[in-house]
Amino acid sequence: MKIPITIPAVWAGLTIKEVLEEALLIPRKIRHFLRMEKALSLDGRPVHWQSLVAEGQVLVLEFKEDWYESRLVQAGQADQVEVVYEDQHLIVVNKPEGMKTHANQPGEMACLNHVVAHTGQTCYVVHRLDQETSGLLLFAKNPVVLPLLNRLLEKRAIKREYWALVEGRFAAKEQVYRDPIGRDRHDRRKRRVDPRGGRSAQTTVKRLKLGSAVTLVACQLATGRTHQIRVHLSHHGYPLVGDPLYHPQPEGRLMLHAHRLSLVHPLTQEPLVLRATSPSFEAGITFAPTS
């Protein structure tokens, strides 16, 4: 697997060693293989470990599959994948509601399996969506870009915005919830606000459209706790319409859709701002607005 990388301005002046260690987060074992097998070049020429890089130069890394631990993922159905963005390194898809991000049982088919069928190669989950939630989902297409995307996620440099339809008239134009979230001791499927033992969580909620009994809001995550939006909003008296865990109703989907994803591509430095819609989510917004 050859991966060409055009050196961005922010890496100019670094040594090859610093690029591999600090910019690309290449594991020590893999750096050793690259060095011993002379499996890297700069503008088509062999390079020393202390060679400096300049903006616009092309660094080519050649990886062998047996350098990384293999992960066998059963292929699903390629026609189940709605691609929003794809390149050599990553793929973003629009997951429908009712589909898991990844399988939990042998033989189970999930979004990851369908992405593998579409790409024809092993892919890796970067972040997750609840089964009932639709929207944008990011996967790495090789083990080289995976730690870079994970670092962006940890640094909160991958921005995710959700649309949610909630019960009640959301009072504020904008509200930030910072309640810690932990496991529900009475129901292992659920999470709850736990001021003492919970993990830090932050959700920014903006009112988009106000109805007589429901409100359409946009939610931005600064953290990625399980069921974070669902827990924060239900805890403060605004449960999501159709939520099977926190606001059970006889019919209808969970009204939560990840509609916007933005990040700076970790290898090309290209700003990506991606959006996706959901017909079933839009069909569920059936209230008469009052303002």
Order of helices and strands: EHHEEEEEHEEHEEEEEEHEEH
Domain unit count? 3
Instruction: Quote the average pLDDT.
Output: 92
**pLDDT < 50 stretches:** none
> How much of the polypeptide forms β-strand, as a percent range?
25-35%
Beta-strand segment tally: 16
Major pleated sheet: 10 strands, mixed
CATH topology of the largest domain: Pseudouridine synthase
Number of helices: 6
Derived structural class: alpha+beta
Q: What's the alpha carbon Rg, rounded to whole Å?
A: 22 Å
CATH homologous superfamily (4th level) name of the largest domain:
Pseudouridine synthase
The CATH top-level class label of the largest domain: Alpha Beta
Helical proportion? 10-25%
State the gist of this model:
Helices cover 17% and strands 29% of the residues. The protein has 291 residues and is α+β, with helices and mostly antiparallel strands.
What does this 3D model show about the protein?
- The protein is of the alpha+beta class.
- It has six helices and 16 strands.
- The chain is elongated and about 65 Å long.
- The protein folds into three domains: 2-65, Structural Genomics Hypothetical 15.5 Kd Protein In mrcA-pckA Intergenic Region, Chain A; 78-155 and 266-274, Pseudouridine synthase (2-Layer Sandwich); 159-259, Pseudouridine synthase (2-Layer Sandwich).
- The protein starts with a strand and ends in a 7-residue tail after the last helix.
- β15 and β16 form a beta hairpin.
- Residues 89-235 form the Pseudouridine synthase RsuA/RluA-like domain.
- Residues 181-202 are annotated as: Disordered.
